Amino acid sequence: MFEQDYKNLLRPFGTRLLLTSACAAGISLAAVALLGLSGWFLTAAAVAGAAGPVAVQAFNYLLPSAFIRFFAIARTVLRYGERYLGHSAALRAMADLRPALFKRLLGQRRSDLMRLSRGEASSRFVQDVSALENRLVAQSAPAAAGGGLVAALIMCGWATPWSALILLIFMATTLTIALYVHRRPPGAETVSEQAAIGALKTRFYELTALLPDVRAYDLRAPLMMELRDLETRLHAAKTHMVGRDAITGAVSLILMGLCMTALIASDIHARLADLALSLLAASMAFDSLGVLAKAIGQKALFDQAQARVADLYDAPREAEAAVLAQAPYLKAGEARYDLDRSLRLRIDGASGGGKTRLIEGLMGLREDRPEGVYDRALFALAPQDAAVLTGTVRDNLMMAMSDATLKTLTREEQTARLWAALEDAALAERVRGMANGLETWIGDGGVTLSGGERKRLALARALLRDAPVLILDEPTEGLDLATEAFVVDRLRDRLKSQGLILISHREAPRILATQVLSV
Questions:
Q1: Any residues with CB less than 8 A from the CB of 418 and at least 6 apart, and which?
Q2: N or C: where does the chain have the smaller number of CB atoms within 10 Å of the terminal CB?
Q3: Alpha-carbon distance 87 to 16, whole Å?
Q4: pLDDT per residue over 151-200, tens digit each?
Q5: How do strand 335-338 and strand 344-348 relate by DSSP bridges?
Q6: Residue 312 backbone zone (phi > 0: left; psi -120 to 50: alpha; other: beta)
Q7: Alpha-carbon distance values, 426 to 385, 452, 483, 488, 514 (Å)
Q8: What whole-number distance in Å separates Cα of residue 11 and Cα of residue 17?
Q9: CA pair distance 86, 79, nearest whole angstrom
């Protein structure tokens, strides 16, 4: 699934990527020609100067200098084109991939989503997708190496055919060794760099949520040791990759030196200018080959990243809840409850008895769904564990308002609705006291708010959703008695036009429900 969708996603950028490769080939060709021709020109001019005034007058310096200027300008222009086309295609492609990946993630089974930690998800969305971006940029490396090799072979062949053959043999040897070094399987104890980064970020995210407990129980030493072990694994993975690059670079440098020696030996009787031409062109060809060797070295990292993204993208999707033409309902035993604006249902049961699981199944958030007809659009949910978006108060509230609703409201009307929801959740006075009101940044996960304030912010968000049935899971937990009474009174007014499914162990909200379902 991912492989095909990824190919379809890249198809609109095929022309740009092809032009990027063409530019890369042109850059290497121009660079080799520029250096080789410059060496030839300087050496030939020096020889002519040493030969006397007659040779100097006969030496044509205009044509070589014109070609040198041409190759210098061409290399600059092509470099700009290669950078612009390659990076714009890669950035735009990843800008399409990330939303598609997030959409697939939202459709996964809840059980799979719960196993995916924040750190691992962040690693795949950021590091792994960025690695795919770099793969697109690096795919022009073969063209770059090919352009440099062709130009160097032509220039070495200008000196003697043997020079071209020698260069071809040494470059082929260098490429073969690079492929062998980078394709050797790593040791069993070496994890992939991408997996090591994911593991470290996962554990770090877990520990940042427990900092008060870490300090209270003095767990700093063992946890630092654990993080150090994870960092050691990441260091080993990076060292493995860098070590291979170092070996390839060293081999390339040694072979380039041997190639230079062989070229000097083969061109010992050639003109001095031609020898300079072949030597400098060959050295630049090895530089072009280094781009390809680097891409080969990164291939394993690119493959790991693509496999991790594909694993996330292709995870089993949750079956969509069936929506029938008949009126939606919930059936529990012999009781049947119509899910409409007249519903006033309280779900009772012991802690851990499955009350939250029941309403999550009703909304289609779980595979073990109760009997009934359901659609998520029917419900506005204020969950027991209120998750708050990292952003402003307005950002958190606007999540509940559909695009269709937003299109019918002006900015002033939207703001009025937000304040009305905050009033009903007994949070308006607190927000008015903030430095920037609705535009106040509330930190990572609402860290600047108390637990009760986060609870009321989630309640206000649910009240903004235009849905027939409001689901409240412990809506007044953590609130003082006066605030709780105020919220319950406001909810009573709200329920004149909205249905209710309530889970609460506190007495005050229970008066809102007239029907009881025990689980």
A1: 394, 397, 398, 438, 460, 464
A2: N
A3: 10
A4: 999 988 887 888 899 999 999 999 999 888 887 766 555 567 777 877 88
A5: unpaired
A6: alpha
A7: 18, 10, 7, 10, 24
A8: 10
A9: 10
